[in-house]
Amino acid sequence: MDRLASGISNTCVSRKIPVPKIVVTDNIVVGIQYECGVIIATDVGPTISNMYRLHDNIYAAVTGVGQDICAVVSVIQSKLEMHHMTTNYRRVPVRCANQMAKQLLHSQDGDLNVNLLIAGVDKYGTEMYSTRFDGSSDTAPFTAMGTGTMNAMSLLETRWRTGLDEETARDVIREAVICGTGRVEGPFKSPIRLCILRNDYSMLDETIGSVVQPLRPFVSRVVPKIVGERVVMVESSTPENGGSGEESVVAKEKINTGGLAKIDEGGDK
């Protein structure tokens, strides 16, 4: 396989094929275990949150279709709360949340496009599970899910080691998210949301970087205006939230003034 990949690379170089540009992907969720806990992180998207609190000691970073995400998270939260009450309000194990997510996704035969990275702390310590849309699940000291998985995993495999302290783990997971999204420079660099769960049951939820709201798009409307014997099509660019816009003449066309007069008379009546 390596020889085949090397041959393809040499062929591209010999044919002077340009190096592909960086592709900005949709979103990425990354999880990493360190000496005193676990960290999950995701890029902050413009539409829906990718970080959810499943229970007091359990959080999940989610990627997939927005409507499916809301439905799956709501069902898991309800089931965990019911389990919490039936067990005399004992702390819910993290593996219990993972099992509920697996059963729910497996029962739908992969129709729910949701991938969850579940992390939490219980009497067994900190745990992290990656559960995919088909109901399969596994656990690892570091993992990534989403459209930029390969890029993030390549960095995690290089930088992760046993016994990481919290500060180093924060830097590693931040670089993994940036590498997975492809937004590495300029105004397209998206903020990152971190959730740190420690062995002493303390939790830190923070956002690194400022959230820049995108400019609202302009709506172009073509409005006919009568100028003498001509109809001038004026393109008016107006923001969706109101305000003054600019007008520019884009086309002119001669028409029958008699037809316009009839239209105007009908409108006046």
UniProtKB/TrEMBL annotation:
<protein>
    <submittedName>
        <fullName>Proteasome subunit beta type-7-like</fullName>
    </submittedName>
</protein>
<dbReference type="InterPro" id="IPR001353">
    <property type="entry name" value="Proteasome_sua/b"/>
</dbReference>
<dbReference type="GO" id="GO:0004298">
    <property type="term" value="F:threonine-type endopeptidase activity"/>
</dbReference>
<comment type="subunit">
    <text>The 26S proteasome consists of a 20S proteasome core and two 19S regulatory subunits. The 20S proteasome core is composed of 28 subunits that are arranged in four stacked rings, resulting in a barrel-shaped structure. The two end rings are each formed by seven alpha subunits, and the two central rings are each formed by seven beta subunits. The catalytic chamber with the active sites is on the inside of the barrel.</text>
</comment>
<dbReference type="InterPro" id="IPR029055">
    <property type="entry name" value="Ntn_hydrolases_N"/>
</dbReference>
<keyword id="KW-0645">Protease</keyword>
<dbReference type="InterPro" id="IPR023333">
    <property type="entry name" value="Proteasome_suB-type"/>
</dbReference>
<keyword id="KW-0378">Hydrolase</keyword>
<dbReference type="Pfam" id="PF00227">
    <property type="entry name" value="Proteasome"/>
</dbReference>
<keyword id="KW-0539">Nucleus</keyword>
<dbReference type="GO" id="GO:0005737">
    <property type="term" value="C:cytoplasm"/>
</dbReference>
<dbReference type="GO" id="GO:0005839">
    <property type="term" value="C:proteasome core complex"/>
</dbReference>
<dbReference type="GO" id="GO:0051603">
    <property type="term" value="P:proteolysis involved in protein catabolic process"/>
</dbReference>
<keyword id="KW-0888">Threonine protease</keyword>
